[in-house]
Amino acid sequence: MDFHSYFCCLRGFDRKQNKKKQSTWRIFSLKELHSATNNFNYDNKLGEGGFGSVYWGQLWDGSQIAVKRLKVWSNKAEMEFAVEVEILARVRHKNLLSLRGYCAEGQERLIVYDYMPNLSLLSHLHGQHSAECLLDWNRRMTIAIGSAEGIVEIADPKLNGNYSADEMKRVSLVGLICARNQPDKRPTILEVVELLKGESKEKVDALENDDMFCGKHDYNDGVSVADDSCDSISVEKAQKEEIEKVVGI
Fold first, then answer.
1. What is the pLDDT of residue 234?
2. Residues 144, 186 share a domain
3. Which is nearest to 49 in space by CA: 189, 173, 154, 248?
4. Pfam families, per this entry (predicted)?
């Protein structure tokens, strides 16, 4: 099934479920996005990940957008694109990027988001804004505690321990792998869904044995090396151990 057929089905489902709700996203033309991003000019480039590059843009009404452009079209990329659009179209939260729309013309696949003027958390911790130190210690602690509370919330005490420790561990590991330093090593939306479902034991085992959790470090220059020192423990590995303590593994 191609994207248009797949997404038409989703839109039909949404209409049945949300007749009284008005969509906040729309379909963009490729011409419109070319104009908004100055023909995807390099100076407008915000970053790059496994899916493709992200560009800053400005629409005719002055509103700012971020446009993610598919790097190489393939059947797998088509499905990942459809899944991501579906999820973003359904989910609304103050801490999540809002979907503005999408474009699917020929083999061009683009997703349009609201633009974040303050950029990402990663950019403030390790990227271009890290030297400015806008996130003081109190703010960083608030972020860390909030993240930990999110994990605890999943295994609410009201459940009286009636939850799967293996599933809790898997959810936590997927969350960590999605936030790794190297964007090209993060899983796609489709891969995240597959990992959370745990349908493939091989993929789950590969996740648990990922370099991120096995004493290897991901550096900003893209070089990953093994640390043989017993005195040096990676932050990611320490996080995994803390998670295992929380879920009682």
1. 46
2. yes
3. 189
4. PK_Tyr_Ser-Thr
